[in-house]
Amino acid sequence: MKIKNDRRQALLQLIRENRIETQEELVERLRQDGFAVTQGTISRDIRDLHLIKVTEADGKSRYRQQLPLPSEEDAFIPILQQAALCAEAAGNLVVVKTHVGMGSAVGAAVDAMPQVNCVGTLAGDDTLLIVARTAQDASEICGLLTSLILKETD
Q1: How confident is the model at residue 73, as a pLDDT?
Q2: pLDDT interval class at 47 (50, 70, 90)
Q3: Which of 12, 26, 132, 134 has the least CB density, counted as fewest CB within 10 Å?
Q4: Are the beta carbons of 118 and 133 closer than 8 angstroms?
Q5: Are residues 114 and 139 in contact, defined by beta-carbon separation less than 8 angstroms?
Q6: How many CB atoms are located within 10 Å of the residue 71 CB?
């Protein structure tokens, strides 16, 4: 399992730091990094990691990680809905305000979310700080959390 996680972390780093346009290019770059991969393996990784191809302003495409909304069954949704009040991005940071005493609970929920790709989190009594890699990542994380916080429960 460690090899799979290491490969996927390397794949995510590759697409963050480079313009990767094809699966073949991903296979080649990962092989150069010492991973024995096939196109089928990369295809599964792309699906499991929720990677999408986006077209940039210059017309060229690249892989990016999409931040999908989690399913209703996920345990962290009720925590976010009940404990978090709002999320706001500032540069590569996201500040989440919570009810008093709930910062750590919201932090644990965010840490458990596979959709949130961040450097780390720091929880206080009524605030959670999320450190993202880029301002774009922070904006996407903020949008995801806001959509979950505002989602009405049935």
Answers
A1: 47
A2: confident
A3: 134
A4: yes
A5: no
A6: 7
Residue-wise pLDDT for 85-101, tens only, equals 999 999 999 999 999 99
Q: What percent of the chain has pLDDT over 90?
A: 48
Residues recorded for the chain = 154
Q: Are 80 and 148 in contact (CB under 8 A)?
A: yes
Per the structure, the complete domain to which residue 26 belongs is given by 2-65
Answer yes or no: are the C-beta atoms of 7 and 27 closer than 8 Å: no
CATH of residue 139's domain is 3.30.1360.40
| 112/81 same-domain check | yes
Q: Give a yes or no: residue 70 inside a domain.
A: no
Buried b (16+ CB within 10 A) or exposed e, 79-98: bbeebbeebebeebbbebbb
In terms of Cα–Cα distance, which of 69, 122, 65, 135 is closest to 96? 122
CA angle 150, 102, 125 (to 5 degrees): 125
What is the amino acid identity at position 114? P
